[in-house]
């Protein structure tokens, strides 16, 4: 519920410096700032995340349960990937400066930076962007439930997700020592980093939909 705004109150805010509102920081090249009603109390059905990424860094898989999201690329380049809730297929949309991708409310998605100094604005039709992160799902769902539901070895599952840090936001972690190939250096890059087509159980070609 959005309360009426008292525009006569001395506490009413009309301006704010988003640079002073960090949500998450991995390092000086990879971080997210936030603007919602907690920061600017005259906002109504709008909020945003100001996202900065370097090459191959990923805004982890997640969904927003209360808002749709418009992803606008200010500079650099990125691929926005979403799981279509109706077709059960991953759709991948490379964007660069001036281009956007729209993500409907509640759809599973993630963003991979394709260039250094990538700057993205994520705009939401809600006063505060709520989020369910993939890392939190992995870490906070009881291993016994995962093992039983999907017929897994519980101990193997625990070992597999042990390195996952809750509320990752931007991955991979700084301490990750795995070499990460780029699309130009490895033909299998997309097979490694983009999820499979859930209907056909194979990896789709990245530049579908005319890209």
From TrEMBL:
CDD domains: cupin_OxDC-like (cd20306). Residues 21-158 form the Cupin type-1 domain. InterPro entries: Cupin_1, RmlC-like_jellyroll, RmlC_Cupin_sf. Coiled coil: none annotated. Gene3D superfamilies: Jelly Rolls. It comes from the Bacteria. This is Cupin domain-containing protein. It comes from Lysinibacillus mangiferihumi.
């Amino acid at each position: 519920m959005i309360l009426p705004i008292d525009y006569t109150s001395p506490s009413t805010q009309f301006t704010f410096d988003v640079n002073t509102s960090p949500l998450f920081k991995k390092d000086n090249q990879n971080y997210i700032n936030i603007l919602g009603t907690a920061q600017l109390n005259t906002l109504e059905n709008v909020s945003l995340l100001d996202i900065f990424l370097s090459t191959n860094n990923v805004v982890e898989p997640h969904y927003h349960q209360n808002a749709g999201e418009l992803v606008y690329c200010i500079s650099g380049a990125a691929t926005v990937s979403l799981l279509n809730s109706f077709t059960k297929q991953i759709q991948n949309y490379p964007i660069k400066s001036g281009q956007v991708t729209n993500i409907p409310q509640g759809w599973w998605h993630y963003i991979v930076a394709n260039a250094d100094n990538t700057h993205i604005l994520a705009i939401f039709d809600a006063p505060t962007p709520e989020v369910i992160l993939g890392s939190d799902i992995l870490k906070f769902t009881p291993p016994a439930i995962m093992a039983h539901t999907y017929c897994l070895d519980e101990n193997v599952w625990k070992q597999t997700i042990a390195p996952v840090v809750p509320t990752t936001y931007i991955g991979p972690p700084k301490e990750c020592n795995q070499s990460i190939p780029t699309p130009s250096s490895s033909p299998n890059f997309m097979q490694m980093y983009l999820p499979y087509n859930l209907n056909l159980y194979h990896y789709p070609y990245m530049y579908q939909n005319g890209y």
